[in-house]
């Protein structure tokens, strides 16, 4: 662990780095974008609220949250809670809280997944940027034991694959929400694309999405520009959740905002970070979220638009003469011909079956015992725009032009 004596030296080092490249250490714009959605319309009369970050790092998101809340309402007082696994970043976060005059006792070290330092506590706001693709094999026994407790613990909805613990942090955040009768809570959490669609119907990730959507907790998902992180250029998304949708225009609805194109190129790249989200884009994202209407980059769906029933389609087993093989007078399924279909929850299964299956397999039937309900959010599909291929005449013209250029180059190379 970083010693107390080394913390001031590290902070001084960070300040020197910030002077060399101020943009790199400015409040993270993707964090402000998420906070804009998370806090919008919630800060007119705040006296005291509590926020927590279950993977707080050096405390950047908590600091930005406090600054942003003060911009909205200068009388706001925010109590920040956080937990961090890495000893060095934990020490820096704790020191930063002390320097700012905050209560550093609320910053805890330890593994959130296996040793929740805030078990049973509830918060007004939950913000997090958990690690992407981090295995949780080392915490497997503790996590699975907690999952057996059902919703008395954090992981009652299901467990993701052991290769990626993102959704465990998502469920941890949900477990920290206050009951609606106590004022409810809001969550802003950053994920990569995996939690949107990973896992078939009946799998842990699908069941987690099912729980979130059927409990009407998901308000919005915002797609961020690529290349805004220092260590990865992958697509990232802010999930905004709330248990205060009942009776509002958002009840039963989910808003998808495609902010992937709202960025400006950095003059100088920092690792994989080549783009920034300007303040104007943050204001636009927040406005679109607040307006809750459809635009070119905003679409609104019903919760069940993301659900489907996975049905198992069977075909009868026949002998070499094509005769049906019966057992106790019943047709037997031919496992080699078994197939599945995903039927949208918004559509009648029998109508779908008659239209999409029976015309091609008149002897098929549905094994209803195997039917499972799943959920996925194919974000990019909803915003896909068809681009017509370049006309062949134009391609040919470009090839001929290249051939002319290469002809002169080859003559020079071979001294023809």
Could you explain how this protein is built, in words?
- The protein is of the alpha/beta class and 416 residues long.
- 32% of the residues lie in helices and 21% in strands.
- Strands 3-2-1-4-5-7-6-8-11 form a nine-stranded mixed sheet, sandwiched between helices. Strands 12, 15, 16 and 17 form a four-stranded antiparallel sheet that branches. Strands 9-10 form a two-stranded antiparallel ribbon.
- Helix 2 packs parallel to helix 9 (279-291).
- The protein starts with 5 loop residues before the first helix and ends with a helix.
- The relative contact order is 0.10.
- Residues 1-30 and 39-48 have low confidence and may be disordered.
The percentage helix is 25-40%
State mean pLDDT (0 to 100 scale).
86
- Strand and helix order: HHEHEHEEHHEHHEEEEEHEEEEEHEEHH
Helix/strand-derived class?
alpha/beta
Mind describing the biggest β-sheet? 9 strands, mixed
Radius of gyration: 27 Å
* E-strand count: 17
Shape: globular
Strand order of the largest sheet: 3-2-1-4-5-7-6-8-11
**Span from first to last CA?**
69 Å
Spans with pLDDT under 50 lasting ≥5 residues? Answer: 1-30, 39-48
Q: What's the number of helices?
A: 12
* Share in β-strands: 15-25%
Observed structural traits:
416 residues, 32% helix, globular, alpha/beta, 9-stranded mixed sheet
In short:
This protein has 416 residues and is of the alpha/beta class. It is built from twelve helices and 17 strands.
């Amino acid at each position: 662990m970083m010693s107390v004596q080394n913390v001031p030296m590290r902070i001084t080092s960070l300040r020197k780095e910030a002077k060399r490249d101020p943009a790199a250490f400015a409040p993270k714009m993707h964090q402000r974008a998420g906070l804009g959605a998370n806090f919008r319309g919630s800060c007119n009369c705040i006296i005291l609220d509590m926020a927590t970050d279950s993977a707080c790092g050096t405390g950047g998101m908590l600091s930005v949250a406090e600054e942003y809340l003060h911009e909205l309402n200068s009388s706001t007082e925010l109590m920040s809670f956080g937990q961090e696994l890495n000893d060095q970043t934990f020490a820096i976060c704790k020191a930063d809280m002390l320097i700012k005059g905050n209560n550093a006792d609320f910053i805890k070290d330890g593994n959130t997944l296996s040793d929740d330092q805030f078990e049973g506590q509830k918060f007004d706001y939950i913000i997090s940027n958990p690690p992407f693709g981090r295995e949780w094999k080392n915490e497997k026994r503790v996590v699975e034991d907690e999952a057996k407790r059902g919703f008395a613990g954090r992981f009652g909805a299901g467990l993701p694959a052991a290769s990626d613990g993102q959704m465990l942090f998502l469920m941890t955040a949900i477990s920290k929400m206050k009951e609606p009768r106590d004022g409810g809570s809001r969550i802003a959490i950053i994920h990569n694309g995996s939690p949107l669609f990973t896992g078939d119907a009946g799998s842990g990730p699908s069941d987690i999405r099912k729980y979130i959507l059927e409990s009407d907790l998901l308000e919005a998902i915002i797609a961020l520009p690529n290349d805004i992180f220092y260590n990865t250029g992958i697509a990232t998304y802010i999930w905004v959740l709330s248990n205060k949708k009942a009776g509002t225009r958002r009840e039963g609805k989910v808003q998808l905002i495609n902010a992937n194109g709202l960025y400006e190129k950095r003059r100088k790249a920092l690792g994989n970070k080549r783009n920034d989200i300007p303040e104007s884009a943050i204001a636009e994202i927040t406005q679109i979220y607040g307006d809750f209407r459809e635009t070119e980059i905003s679409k609104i769906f019903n919760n069940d638009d993301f659900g489907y029933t996975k049905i198992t389609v069977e075909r009868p087993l026949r002998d070499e003469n094509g005769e049906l093989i019966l057992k106790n007078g019943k047709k037997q399924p031919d496992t080699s011909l078994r197939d599945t279909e995903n039927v949208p929850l918004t559509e009648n299964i029998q109508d779908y079956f008659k239209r999409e299956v029976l015309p091609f397999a008149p002897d098929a039937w549905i094994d209803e015992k195997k039917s499972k309900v799943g959920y996925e959010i194919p974000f990019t599909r909803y915003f896909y725009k068809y681009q017509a291929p370049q006309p062949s005449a134009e391609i040919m013209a470009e090839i001929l032009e290249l051939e002319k250029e290469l002809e002169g180059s080859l003559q020079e190379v071979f001294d023809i």
